[in-house]
Structures are given as structure tokens and as C-alpha cells.
User: Which sequence fits this backbone?
């Protein structure tokens, strides 16, 4: 596996993309499926806000972001096989591709979040004491 470290903004965009990739025909055919992506995006936004306002601890926010992607992965896996065939007997290739891409993105972002340092999860970086103009006392 490559050791390329994505910028935090790109990693967060991939997380949102992983939650939203569903073919429109699937959501029209299964209206209850339209509830999961917005709910997970709402939890994602709350985790990011909690992370950057210090409401959540760094470890707790990372665990919540990984949990959201895990729920997305399991939900997609559970809904994949029962919905692969249309009522007329044809394969629903768009759903298969969207589900596999969504699961792959969720898996990748879970691994990337786990490997990232806790301090590397903040959008607003706090400067080190030496950068704030404080002089060390002798």
C-alpha cells in the first residue's frame, strides 16, 4: 500500500463522497434508502464541528468518523445482494458499481483516518508554544 498522505480536505471530501454515491434509480426504487446518506452526512458534519470546536476529544472524533464509514460499509454490503437483480430479471450494474466504489472509499478512508495522527485531524492547527512568541524561561 502506498504511503502517500492525502491532504485533510481531500480525505474529508472522499468521506462525504463515499456516503453519497448511490444511483438515483436505486433511491427511487427503494425510498427507505434515501434516509441513510443524509443521516450519515449529518453525523459526519457533527463530528467535524465537534472536532474543530474541541467539543469532542481528538480520539473520540476520529473514532466517530471511522464508525460512520463502517456503518456505511456494512449498510452497503447488506443491501447489495438483495438488490442486484431488477424485477424483470436483469442485473442492476449501476448499483453494483456504485456500491463497490462506495465500499472501497469507505474502507480506504477508515484506514487513512486510523493512520493519521490525532493532531493532523484538525483543520485549524494550533501553533506550537515556540511559534506563539513565548520565550523559554531559564
Assistant:
Amino acid at each position: 500500500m502506498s504511503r502517500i498522505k492525502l491532504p485533510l480536505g481531500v480525505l474529508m471530501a472522499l468521506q462525504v463522497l463515499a456516503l453519497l454515491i448511490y444511483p438515483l434509480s436505486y433511491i427511487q426504487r427503494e425510498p427507505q434508502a434515501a434516509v441513510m446518506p443524509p443521516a450519515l452526512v449529518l453525523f459526519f458534519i457533527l463530528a467535524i464541528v465537534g472536532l474543530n470546536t474541541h467539543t469532542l476529544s481528538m480520539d473520540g472524533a476520529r473514532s466517530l468518523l471511522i464508525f460512520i464509514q463502517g456503518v456505511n460499509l456494512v449498510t452497503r454490503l447488506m443491501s447489495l445482494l438483495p438488490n442486484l437483480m431488477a424485477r424483470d430479471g436483469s442485473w442492476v450494474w449501476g448499483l453494483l458499481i456504485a456500491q463497490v466504489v462506495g465500499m472501497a472509499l469507505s474502507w480506504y478512508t477508515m484506514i487513512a483516518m486510523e493512520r493519521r495522527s490525532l493532531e493532523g485531524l484538525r483543520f485549524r492547527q494550533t501553533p506550537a508554544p515556540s511559534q506563539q512568541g513565548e520565550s523559554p524561561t531559564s
In short: Residues 8-122 form one domain. The helical segments are 8-20, 24-29, 36-52, 58-80, 93-115.
